[in-house]
Amino acid sequence: MTLRSEEDLLLPARLSIIVPCYNEAENVAPMVAALSRVLAEEYWEVIFVDDNSPDGTSARVSDIAKNDPRVRVVRRVGRRGLSSAVIEGFLSSSATYVAVMDGDLQHDESVLPKMLAALDAGSQMVVGSRHVEGGDNAGLAGHWRHLLSDTGIRAAQVVLPHPLTDPMSGFFVMRRDLFTATLPKLSGTGFKILLDLVMSVPKETRITEVPFVFRPRVAGESKLDVVVLLQFATMLLDKLTHGWLPTRFLAFALVGLVGVIVNVAVMQLARVSGMDFSQSQLIGTAVAILTNFLLNNRLTYHDRRLKGARMWRGFALFAAVCSVGVFANIGVARMVLHDLGHGHWDRASAAGAVIGVVWNYAVSSTLIWR
């Protein structure tokens, strides 16, 4: 790669490229080389924000950074999540413009000069789109991933205050001062930071789209799965309720609903097998608590996931917390029923359920997934 003169390297970067990554060691050097080619006339830097990848991604970036001052790494230990990684990358930049690209080489870096030109012309945010003329989504492998992406796009377009053809894109450039002004409104969770930003920026923000071809992945594994889509859905609800129902609480409540279904199903199976009501209810409750814990560990607290011995200690504490939540549920339900009269079982039950969910969520967030 060709570096600028020593005097040029002392000048501040006009563009920072934020690359959130996890297990992308094999893609680091090719990405730096590609950026060097297409941004030869720009003052730029690339900031890899690595969630402590076990494949040595941070070490690979550090090796390159020893000889290229345009390359930096932010290694996050004990923190996970694409959106929060992007936010930390933004906060470490002082450039006028900041771009976000995936670390898997699927985003076409040759589009960056065109995106910068749009910003220079007055746009405040420029989104790389796979769904405008000249764009292509062929690099998204498999029918299932196409279905997930298309479902997310249609859901987002219903509620977006700004029309976008590709709100699921992870490739965009924006003014850093716009990001700084928008930061307090961001949820900072999930994998779709663009949607979070577009739903948080002022309505008068000038957003344009430019086409790009989404390339096939060369190394590493895709992070797009059903968990990403569920986190995407809860983040939409968070934005629609203006933060009154935080993303994590919505996910926790959704998992709780799944637990209710599991409880009833297992209880019915147990009764059919000949057990009495109390035995069936006990088994159904136990299976539901285990299901809720595993789903919360995988979905709600994806960035704080417990593993190994810590996971089983967490499960024991979660079971204890849920047991207390059951007593809180029943106690509140009885109080409400006493005040409203015995003709209002539905309202009393709902009030108890809400208190139970709030209790379980508050204690779980404080003691288990801290």
Automatic annotation (TrEMBL):
InterPro entries attached to this UniProt entry: DPM1-like (IPR039528), Glyco_trans_2-like (IPR001173), GtrA_DPMS_TM (IPR007267), Nucleotide-diphossugar_trans (IPR029044)
Domain named GtrA/DPMS transmembrane: residues: 252-369
Entry keywords, A to Z: Glycosyltransferase, Membrane, Transferase, Transmembrane, Transmembrane helix
UniProt membrane topology term: Multi-pass membrane protein
Subcellular location: Membrane
Lineage: superkingdom: Bacteria
Gene3D superfamilies per UniProt: Spore Coat Polysaccharide Biosynthesis Protein SpsA, Chain A
Transmembrane segments: 249-271, 315-337, 349-369
Domain Glycosyltransferase 2-like: 16-179
Family, per entry: Belongs to the glycosyltransferase 2 family.
Name of the protein described by the UniProt record: Dolichol monophosphate mannose synthase
Protein species of origin: Gluconobacter japonicus
